[in-house]
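Input chain follows. Return structure tokens only.
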Amino acid sequence: MVALLFCFHLMATSDRSLTPASPQPKRGRFGWRPDQQWEGYLFILPSFLGFFVFIALAVVISLGISFSDWGLTGWRGFAGLTNYQQMLRDPVFWQAFWNTAFYIVIIVPSQLILGLLMAVALNQAIRGRSFYRLIYFMPVVTTIVAGAIVFRLLLANNGPVNDLIRWVNSLLGLSIPVPNWLGSSQFSKWAVVILTLWKNTGFTMVVYLAALQGVPQELYDAASVDGASAWRRFLNVTVPLISPTTFFLFVFQTIGAFQLFTEPFVMTQGGPANSSLSVVQYIYLAAFRDIRMNKASAMAWFLFLFIFTFTYLQNRLQQRWVYYETD
């Protein structure tokens, strides 16, 4: 409907474009000319309604639910801070929280390091460079559920990965332990980590690759003239100039790790014994399995405040290590 109205607008204004330019009418309060203001609001109306109904209004309602006694039959009264107190006394919530902290500590630095190494390697003049970039980026556009199912088969107790470990043990006479990736509390989180790194490292590589191509070659040439080795050029030229990209990726990937859901949900269902349960997965289970929207809303707002505080602190601390090139 909006596209149709836009076509009618173009047809109506096509004749006016052939006439001599006339003085522009006085602009209104928001910078729109009186004869075009309604058209602008009309075009943004679908997006605005969608944002208001499904995001803004839902956020406000969830805040109210977090202070209410809300169950299967709906609202049953005002509960104050009871939901937050119960959340803080819930051992499963804290287990999910520390699992999420584990994911952040392992996944975020690993993605940054691996993505940067891949970007540096693929920024060189090597044969088949475009093909390698495509191969490494393909997991990013792959459906995460399909990838998780494949990794469940690969990491199964009798899957190819464990068969390879057994074959190496028998061939070389080693005693490498064969992990129970999906059924052991010790290795279940690592299975989620492996899947997440496979899925998201390609995105980090592409962003770093764009940043590396923006570093002026003259700085490398000047460093070479001064006798700097390749390693010193990397530390003193490359790392500072791509530090804004590193800051963006660090914050972006940390927020993504806080919101980890699909990987543990499909790979391990949060088990065994909640050993791989994430906070967002626990919010989902509280809301749609236990039908406790009040508990889920309280945990969601706690997670939001924690992410907001973390992001704010990182934004304040970036002045100490992020270098912004100025003219």
